[in-house]
Amino acid sequence: MAVDDALARPAAQQPQWPDIEAAHQVRAVLEGVAPVVRAEEVDQLRSRLAEVAGGTAFLLQGGDCAETFADTTERYIAGTVGTLSRMASILTRAGRLPVVTLGRIAGQYAKPRSAPLDACGLPSYRGDIVNGIEATIEARVPDPHRMLRAYVNSSAAMTMVRALVATEAVGPDDHLPYEHGFFTSHEALLLDYERAMLRVTGPYDPKLYDLSSHFLWIGERTRRLDGAHIAFAELLANPIGLKLGPTTTPEQAIEYVERLDPRNEPGRLTLISRMGSTEVHDVLPPIVEKVTASGHTVVWQCDPMHGNTVISETGYKTRHFDCVVDEVRGFFEVHRTLGTHAGGLHVELTGDDVTECLGGAQRISPADLHHRYTTACDPRLNRRQSLELACVVAELLRPTS
Ligand code: PEP
Ligand code: MN
């Protein structure tokens, strides 16, 4: 029972369900449902990511920090998919590289938290799949039935994504370069949900897939090497992402690569560095050097959001657009110097005109943040900031002749 063994390891950031029997019943229901995605699509993404790892394609990943059930609407999903599509076409044109697009969408409902209690002294909100965001003690009680709603909403969002992608045009300016693929992803955090979405399938050689999403990543707070999340990810046929923060050592990176890419398959593992704009120059190069020397061909992706989070003078969790750009530039510089492929970008964004991140051409200031600060968790780039960032990355990708 490899899955049970993996999940018997210490698992960080899991809710304490008050009714464990109810959680088991929900899991049993989910074990029998039609999956959110198909194994064939997962395999297709793996081969696209092999191209990214090999340096002939670019990976764009983005969407909410935390999706909410309330925002599983046609308008909202079209805003996210449309923004990503527009970014992908900006990047494709400049880089002359196919862009593989991955939404943080159709399942990004579970959040790791740095503290068990929030600023009001209530148990922290852990994402709509676990508890409610409303600031009451009742809403914050973990409810395993929320996993059913997460499955239903993920499936509905997936249907909407498929419909938008099939129509090719998701907005007046948003033409999806869909021939390179639009896939879904979320953090593999809530193990009761992820294990229930496991399916052994495949036309010739059945493998174990987590069919809650095409791509799953392990976050900075749950990546301990002896923990359940890494052991779970090891078992999957899905491509896996791993967030690497500024305390990661090159030796740890090698252990991760050996555990998560044991067969040395380009595209299997995406290392998502989220170092912070001041750390990326020092911390990333020895990691890239050591992994490259090990012979593993990973996707190198930059998350310029999570290492650059600050509290504004007006009290909001925010990120400055300039720091985001600085980390992206640092990431490209490191790879240019080492002769490796700066393969991808991973951002938190929304198609809405929110005021959550500072700066950009709109010059959002600390005093503006309260106008439209609607995120359920971390601050997101709004549509204009997202397109601006795509233009910066496009310049960095432009072939020098
Ligand atoms: C996230 O991607 O929302 C997240 C929590 O990131 P990290 O694990 O890098 O902190
Ligand atoms: Mn986040």
List keywords for this structure.
13% strand, two-stranded antiparallel ribbon, globular, binds phosphoenolpyruvate, alpha/beta, binds manganese (II) ion, TIM Barrel, 401 residues, single chain, 36% helix
How would you explain this protein's 3D organization?
With 401 residues, the chain is α/β, with parallel strands linked by helices. The protein has a single domain, classed as TIM Barrel, CATH 3.20.20. Helix content is 36%, strand content 13%. The protein has 11 helices and 12 strands. The chain has helices at residues 2-7, 20-30, 39-53, 74-95, 146-166, 191-196, 228-234, 250-260, 280-293, 321-338, 383-397; strands at residues 58-63, 99-104, 182-187, 198-201, 207-210, 215-218, 240-244, 269-273, 299-302, 310-311, 317-318, 344-348. The strands form 3 sheets. It has an 8-stranded parallel β-barrel, surrounded by 6 helices. The chain has a two-stranded antiparallel sheet with strand order 4-5. Helix 4 crosses helix 5 (146-166) and helix 8 crosses helix 9 (280-293). The longest helix has 22 residues, at 74-95. The mean pLDDT is 95.
Helix proportion of residues, in percent? 25-40%
Strand order of the largest sheet: 1-2-3-6-7-8-9-12
* First-residue to last-residue Cα separation: 55 Å
Radius of gyration: 20 Å
Output the helix-strand order.
HHHEHEHEHEEEHEHEHEEEHEH
Helix segment count?
A: 11
Shape: globular
Number of domains: 1
How much of the sequence lies in strands comes to: 5-15%
